[in-house]
Amino acid sequence: MAKGLTADELRTEPQDVLVTKLKEAKEELFNLRFQAATGQLESHGRLRTVKREIARIYTVMNERELGIVSVTEEDAAEGDDD
């Protein structure tokens, strides 16, 4: 999983890619928690980063579900910048 995912980057992704990234982030969080419990975790900051990535993905998914932002609106806004 890429470090430093931003909400803007996530908003341009299709729904199926978001679901995949969410699944990967949850698996990584599970592994990090397991390492922390067994004393093998070296970077505790990564736990915080992964939790925030998961929250960002859920936020973008909820925005789409509520109709606040859709993929087509974002694509149209990018076309106006050119």
TrEMBL record:
<keyword id="KW-0689">Ribosomal protein</keyword>
<protein>
    <recommendedName>
        <fullName>Large ribosomal subunit protein uL29</fullName>
    </recommendedName>
</protein>
<dbReference type="InterPro" id="IPR001854">
    <property type="entry name" value="Ribosomal_uL29"/>
</dbReference>
<dbReference type="InterPro" id="IPR018254">
    <property type="entry name" value="Ribosomal_uL29_CS"/>
</dbReference>
<dbReference type="Pfam" id="PF00831">
    <property type="entry name" value="Ribosomal_L29"/>
</dbReference>
<comment type="similarity">
    <text>Belongs to the universal ribosomal protein uL29 family.</text>
</comment>
<keyword id="KW-0687">Ribonucleoprotein</keyword>
<dbReference type="GO" id="GO:0005840">
    <property type="term" value="C:ribosome"/>
</dbReference>
<dbReference type="InterPro" id="IPR050063">
    <property type="entry name" value="Ribosomal_protein_uL29"/>
</dbReference>
<dbReference type="InterPro" id="IPR036049">
    <property type="entry name" value="Ribosomal_uL29_sf"/>
</dbReference>
